[in-house]
Amino acid sequence: MRKFIMLLNEELKRGAKFYLIALVGLVVLEFVSVIYEIKNYQSNVEEYMRVDRISQMEAIRLAGGPLNFGDATSYFQYIIAIAMMLILLLSFQVWYRDWFGESKYIYRLLMLPGKRTAILMSKLTAVFLTIASFIGIQWMVLLLSGSLFKWLTPEDLMESKRVFGENRIISMFYTFNIADTLIILLVSTLVVSFVFHIILIERSYRKPIAIMHVVIDVVLLIVPLVGLVYIFENTHFLYPDQITTFVIGYFLLYFVYVYWKSIRLLNHKISI
Amino acid sequence: MRRYKHVLAIGGLSLITIGSYFGYAAMIDEPEYVVESVQGKATDDAVKDLHIELTNARVKPNLYDIKLDGTIKVSEQNYLTNLYDSIDTNYPKEFYRFIRSTNVSSSEYGTRTYGIEAKTNHINYQSYDEKTKKYTKVRFPHTLKGTHQYEDNESMFQILGQDKDQLYVAQNAYGPSKDLKILHFDLKKRQVKEVPFVSPDPKQHQSRTLVSSNVFGTLYLLETTDENDVINKFDYYLDNGKSVKKIKALDKFAYSGSMDLISDNRQLLLYDSPEDQSKDIVWRIYDFKTDKLSEHRVTGKYPNQFNSTQIFNTDERLYQVSPVDKSQFQVTVINLKDNSIEYQGFIKDKNQLKNFDLSNVRIEG
Amino acid sequence: MLEVHGLHKKYGRKRPVLQGVSFTVPPNQLTCLIGLNGEGKSTILKSIMGLIPLDAGTIVVDGEMSRERIAFVPDLSTMPGYMTVGDAILYMEDFYPDWNQKTAEELMAFFKLLSTDKISDLSKGNKAKVNLLLGFSLDRPYLLLDEPLAGIDLFTKEQIAWIFSSHYMEGRGILMTTHEIAEVEHLIDRVVFLQDGKIIHEDDAEEMRELYGKSVQDRMREVFQR
């Protein structure tokens, strides 16, 4: 446990610069996008009024109606997509930085006393904490953006002061249902685990054999699942809810296999 | 501590920020619903099995399943529970497998789901009633000639009416008119008879929609369109196997809203979603025997909201649940035997959280 | 005794790098593993440490199949460049229960390294010193050294060579690979010759010198020029 926490600290320390730059960059980008949307909308309305010589109400109608918080945060979905790409990049970088570069930190990691499982878990936890902190910071930015929206937008241009439920993408992440947040974190962790798995295969085998292992593992995920669901749906052997339970159970079992194989590769196959 | 500086920093940041989100979610006000019965009692047969489901998808997607005796069941709707949203789970396994089979034509009528399978030398019939939980399975030793296999098997048979053990079914209901047959299934005697249908085939620019079938005959709507496919004429006809009679009483009603057989299949109930902002509930009953259409109206306490009101009928009653505002809902039950209000009540939120919508109304139990 | 039995390693369809390599490293002796470039010397050391998986073979250390009695000094830096020497020492202290802080401080002083020196800013020679410091400061009975004198200046070589004849070596079984044989000739107790992935000779260095009047370098020329 101690080894795991110390390794985790080291992983976070190594990625601290990348993390801070990404976080600050994304937050600034979001605030700037909100200000831009509000100011852009305002200037559009003013231009309609000036050029077409119409009332403000008419100008608002031409501009697509009054501004709501969903409009003001319309760029958030793209910024969230960038954040997801950065997390994916981090998932690769967290391993490959140990192999490439002037120092070969991977030597040190693999020679540490105790179980190598701690190496896998510390990297996974480091990415997990990055995801969790991004989700948490996005929440803070959402609240502050709401205040910014209410402060900057004139009342007569505002559709409503409502912040929640106005942006579809944001509503998907923040449903005010704690279970949904945990599900998002779990699914993210499983995706990252799979990326780690592919990296460990790549680091353990020569390219042709590595590709073969990856293909086998992808086939193992998709083919039995699709095949069995097809059989269940056509024979009606199970109710739809039972098929759902089967699919979820299969996924979880598959990821138990992914972890088992990843640990095996780390213990017996991985090469510097 | 020095050793764990970064873990504490990022872990702490995550905990605090996500923790504040969880705290915010926990602090969202929950409604406190009470039921006020103005006319009738919550324990009356009319409403004791009525479930009204309310949801606030905009903020916290909990589902409130309210019964008029004040019993409230709150279900949390999350990504996982949304995957489990199949009504099929309520069906008995054998019935579920039957109606999902490729050659079985399934349809719904009222609270019942039906499945009919035409085999070479017999007919398999199964039905399941959601309300009474009754599962019926009958094998008819008959052959149905001229049954077409359409791409969508559900179009093969259409249930036109059921009265106890008698079932009226249209075979090849949505196929070419020349293939249409009206069948009478006697579930007790295990007999299938073809009901004579003498109506001529629809002409070009005409389309026929079957409405119901009972001892008086088969009622259908005939629509005529112009060259731009716009309906410019519609008439209702009753085919009793010997002759075809135009039903002038139904002249005014285009086929929208609901038309269901009630009162032992001797009357046709017609109703639509209420007019927006009107306080009235309007329904009409066509009596096959007297060939007369009667209109009935009751006035509720509050205006109705179109698109937000749920209205449905059983054989004996008409149910309407409509929002008064987003924290109060009006429940009205009309007895179709005497066309009077049997129950009227209100579901009110003590906390007056005005952000709930009507999700579903059903009778179960 | 560090015993290496039947090591086999092959990369793909190429000829095997190691073909049944077996030898021993006695305690309290310096064993030098000698071979030409690309013969598999580093592969042997790395596979002993579990850094390269073997196709076959076993490693036994004093009767146990555990690597936790062996310290390894590789030929490259293994600490992240952003770390300082002080950070690296703290890292080792955190993770290794058999870390000897006193030895680390002594060696740091001897090598004239500062705890604030950033590893990425160090010269090749100083990086080699840090590697040695991290390896020698573990209280482990066996020590593997992979080309400890490669590519560094004369003065640093002398410093490192002094370490090899100091009390820091006492009680340890050492396995070393090096091309700088002249620098450590006088320290070598045993010689193991590796060619084409196989051990072709094992000699007692003292016997060679006394009985046959040959240095390790002489013997090396004899073996590889055949």
List the helices and strands and how they pair.
The complex is a heterotrimer of chains A (272), B (365) and C (226).
Chain A: H1 2-14, H2 16-52, H3 56-62, H4 69-72, H5 76-99, H6 105-111, H7 117-152, H8 168-173, H9 178-204, H10 207-235, H11 240-269
Chain B: H1 5-26, E1 33-39, E2 50-55, E3 62-67, E4 72-76, H2 79-83, H3 93-99, E5 105-109, E6 112-118, E7 123-129, E8 135-140, E9 157-163, E10 166-171, E11 181-186, E12 191-195, E13 206-214, E14 217-225, E15 231-239, E16 244-246, E17 258-262, E18 267-271, E19 280-287, E20 292-299, E21 310-313, E22 317-325, E23 328-335, E24 340-349, E25 357-363
Chain C: E1 2-9, E2 18-25, E3 30-34, H1 41-48, E4 56-61, E5 70-73, H2 85-95, H3 101-110, H4 124-136, E6 142-146, H5 154-164, E7 173-177, H6 181-184, E8 190-195, E9 198-204, H7 205-212, H8 216-224
Helix pairs in contact in C: 3-4
Task: Give an overview of the whole structure.
The complex is a heterotrimer of chains A (about 270), B (about 375) and C (about 230). Helices cover about 80% and strands about 0% of the residues of chain A. Chain A is mainly α and about 270 residues long. The two termini of chain A are about 25 Å apart. The mean pLDDT of chain A is about 95. Chain B is mainly β. Chain B has 3 domains: about 30-85 and about 255-365, no CATH class; about 85-195, no CATH class; about 200-255, no CATH class. Chain B is about 10% helix and about 45% strand. Chain B has 3 helices and 25 strands. Chain B has helices at about 5-25, 80-85, 95-100, and strands spanning about 35-40, 50-55, 60-65, 70-75, 105-110, 110-120, 125-130, 135-140, 155-165, 165-170, 180-185, 190-195, 205-215, 215-225, 230-240, 245, 260, 265-270, 280-285, 290-300, 310-315, 315-325, 330-335, 340-350, 355-365. The radius of gyration of chain B is 25 Å and the shape is globular. Chain B starts with a helix and ends with a strand. Helix content of chain C is about 35%, strand content about 25%. Chain C has 8 helices and 9 strands. Chain C is globular and about 50 Å long. Chain C starts with a strand and ends with a helix. The mean pLDDT of chain C is about 90. At the A-B interface, helix 1, helix 7, helix 9 and helix 11 of A face helix 1, helix 2 and helix 3 of B.
